[in-house]
Each structure stands twice: as structure tokens, then as C-alpha cells.
Amino acid sequence: MSAPERIGIYGGTFSPPHCGHVRAAEAFAASGCIDRLMIIPSFLPPHKDYRPEVSTEDRLHMCEIAFSGIPGAEISDIEIRRGGRSYTVDTLRALSAPDRELVMLCGTDMLMTLDSWYRADEIFRLCTVAYVRRENSAEVLPLLRARADLYREKYGARIIEIESDALEISSTEIRRELSHNVAPSLIPREVYEYIQKRGLYR
Fold it and tell me: Which of 4, 9, 92, 174 is the most exposed place for a label (fewest CB within 10 A)?
């Protein structure tokens, strides 16, 4: 009997996808814990008061551009096609299969609040959680590991840490710079060219 395929899941608003997103995805893909990587732009993230500034089609195209250099990475529109609030548990249910193992990537802030997500107990049951640092503070690391231990004890969670150089980037600040026609240094050049061509975030 062959081993289950390990599917890496990296979801987010990606508005726009920036170098921090790309670095995290690269580290995830290179970690050896997954066989292939799915990038999944959300339709409406449930944990944010999100007002779409660009179309879902533009976010999909920007993701295709931003993550194109990662071998085997694919952009999935599963949450966009489903519509409504993009609850993680619904996506995990849809992607689950007997011959698959799901591994979900999250950042520092997401890991710290994961037990407050809708059907958190089922999320931990359906996938392994992989987290990557999004900040450089030495004080945060023991907090992350303590939270991971709490999830293991409370939910029987499977949690792994992905090694990567942290890159602190604010998507809000990037959008503010774009709205003032300033070229942010922390988004891929090809993504910025697409944004300029389409007149996004003005």
C-alpha cells in the first residue's frame, strides 16, 4: 500500500501577495513535509472585516504570478468558487481523502488564535498544522511553542515548525503605498507590474 500524498495548504487573502507570502511558501515547499503545495486565495476571510479592494480574478492572477517560481505549486480557486465566508474547516473537508494527508501552513498570528476558529477541533483532526515565523522577536518563540504544546494536549494536534527567515511585512501598509502610487519594495516586481497595468489599489 502506497503512502498517502501529503498536500500542503496555504490559504490567505493575498491582497496583494507579497515577498513574505512567497518566502513562507518556499520554505514550506522545501521543508520535506509535503509532496505538493496548493495556494488557496480566500473569498471572504471569516476572521477579518474584509472589504474587497480588487476582484477575486485579480487576486488569483496575482497569486499565479507571485508563486510561479515554486516548483509544483498550484493556485486553487476552491474557496472562491464556493463563495460566502471561507471557513478553513470547509476547505479541509472538501480536500480530505483516504489517500491524502493534509498539512496546513499558518503564520504566527494565526497559530496564536487557531483555537478560536470555527470548528477548531475538527481543523486539528483533519490536518497537520505547520507554522512559520512572521516576526523576528526572540520573545515570541517560546509563546508559539507553548501554544503548540497546548493544542497538542487539548486537541491531540499534530504541529510542526517550518524553519524560515522571518520577513515582517504589513499588507495594509503595502496597500497604502500603492494607493499613493508608491512602489512597495516588498512585493514581487511582476506582481507590481500587474497591479500597475490593471490600475489596482488606487
Answer: 4
Domains of the chain: 5-168 (3.40.50.620)
Q: Which residues pair with 39 in a beta bridge?
A: 10, 75
DSSP state letter for 123: H
Whole-angstrom Cα distance, residue 195 to residue 88? 28
Beta strand segments in 23-181, E: 36-41, 73-75, 100-107, 127-132, 159-162
- Full-model pTM: 0.93
Rg, the chain, Cα only: 17
- Where are any strands of DSSP class E within the chain? 5-12, 36-41, 73-75, 100-107, 127-132, 159-162
Q: What is the pLDDT of residues 121-152, one digit of tens each?
A: 999 999 999 999 877 777 888 999 999 999 99
Of 30, 2, 7, the C-alpha closest to 102 is: 7
**How many whole angstroms from its chain centre is CA 49?**
17
Rounded-to-integer distance, Cα 188 and Cα 62, Å: 10
